[in-house]
Structures are given as C-alpha cells and as structure tokens.
Specification:
single chain, 262 residues, alpha/beta, Rossmann fold, six-stranded mixed β-sheet, globular
C-alpha cells in the first residue's frame, strides 16, 4: 500500500477513496463534473488543482456527502456513498472548508471542537479528551476558551482543523487550506499537515503547497481529469500546466532578475 510519500500505485487494488465516472450538473444547468474517475490509497497525499470553475470544490463536496452523485459512484472505504451510508462516510472523511467561518459557530473554541464528538453520543470525558488532543495537535490548546470571532485567520484555520480531527477521521479533505493565510501561518500549516498520518486530499490554487506537501497531483480541467501523477513531474511540466490554465510553482520559476530569459 502506498505510504505518505508514495504515488498511488496501489490505489486501484486498495483504495480508501474510489470515484468512478462521477457526473454533476448544477441547478443552473452548468455541468461541473463530466465523467471523472480516480482512486486514492491509504496514506496518500493528493492535490487536486485546476483553474477557477474546473470542478475542484465540487469533487470535494462529493467525498463527504455534501453533494450526492447524479451519475457515477463514490466509494469511501467499504461504503458506497448514499443517504443510508452518510453517517459512516462522515465519520470516515473529515472536511475542512475553505472559509473557517463556515465551520466555527459556537461561543467558544472548545465548544466548536466538541460539537462533532457530542453528536456521536460519546461520553463527556471522552469528548473532553478528544477536544484537548485535537487542539494540542494543531497547537491551539491555549485558545480553548476564546470566542472564534476573536481569532486570527491562521488561528481560525487551526481550530477548524481541530474540529475535524476530534471526529478521528481516517481521511482529511481540505478546500484551499492556505487561502488568506499570512506566510508564517501558511508555512506552519504545511509543516503541521506533513506530520499527519491520515490520507489527505487537498483542492488548492497554491501549487507551491502542492509541491511541498503532496506526492501526487490531479489536474482538473472543465470537469475532467487532464492528468494524474507524481507532483514533482506534473508541476514542472510547463506545457501541461499551460493546458490546465496553471503556472509553475513560484519556487520553480526562477528569479527574473537573476536569470533573465535567454
């Protein structure tokens, strides 16, 4: 089985996520996904990249049942996604939304992190243990009594991740996790995610983060997969990136002053 830094060689035989011919059209008639298929193995780190409107967020919303397939299938571990399996899928997949304010709505940080475990019906001492463990993982235990609206952007992101970790998911799905973070908070987040054992699937415009964090990158264009392979190959392929309306990570572009063209 592929490990943290392996490519998805074993994803076909041992997938924890399996998407087959997924299609989705929004109510306004805009087709977001046009028959898209991929598998992810346990322990993989996968970036899903593409231009605005390519379908990245729509894919993620299917992975924890916020959206249901109109055609095709999504399987999470042993569970084919359906209304009946939704509780099992959501225990398996933790979703971190692009805007932390969509996840933080309680009076105190510790209440937000406790919300999921309480809804699982866990005893109070187990909920407390999970809350403090999740907050300590993201370095936010000192924020437990703070109201979320008083937090910085990086602190909100950390607490939103803790609110997902408290559910003990085996798969972590994140939509634009570095958006609106200052450089120091962004770097802290990337280093934190590198320590996680969970399978991680990230939709992002931050190709430098994809290069640093994810062994594998899936490029999506107009609701279809343009390519799927090792990040270090894909993110250095200028022709491929142009086809996907993307630019090479900044670190790979070179300095225009030190290395002028020609």
């Amino acid at each position: 089985m592929a490990g943290r830094h392996g490519h998805g060689v074993d994803a076909v035989s041992h997938p924890v996520v399996e998407v087959r011919d997924l299609q989705y059209t929004y109510p306004d008639g805009n087709p977001a996904l046009r028959g898209l298929s991929f598998s992810v193995a346990q322990g993989e780190t996968v970036a899903i990249v593409g231009a605005n409107g390519a379908g990245k967020s729509t894919i993620l919303l299917h992975l924890n049942g916020c959206l249901m397939p109109q055609a095709g299938t999504v399987r999470i571990g042993d569970f084919p996604l359906s209304k009946r399996t939704l509780p099992d899928v959501r225990r398996t997949v933790g979703m971190v939304f692009q805007d932390p304010d969509d996840q933080l709505f309680m009076p105190k940080v510790q209440d937000d992190v406790a919300f999921g475990p309480l809804n699982l019906g866990l005893p109070a001492d187990e909920v407390d243990r999970r809350v403090m463990h999740a907050l300590s993982i993201v370095g936010a235990a000192h924020l437990k009594d703070r109201p979320p609206y008083r937090l910085s952007g990086g602190e909100k992101r950390a607490v939103a991740i803790a609110s997902v970790l408290s559910m003990s998911p085996t798969i972590l799905v994140m939509d634009e996790p570095t958006s609106n973070l200052d450089p120091q908070a962004r770097r802290r987040l990337i280093e934190l995610l590198k320590t996680f054992e969970q399978t991680i699937i990230v939709a992002t415009h931050d190709l430098d983060m994809a290069f640093d964090l994810c062994a594998r990158t899936i490029v999506v264009k107009e609701g279809r997969i343009l390519t799927d392979g090792p990040s270090r190959e894909i993110l250095q392929d200028a022709v491929l990136l142009v086809a996907g309306h993307l630019e090479r990570p900044l670190r790979l572009q070179g300095c225009p002053v030190c290395s002028p063209p020609g």
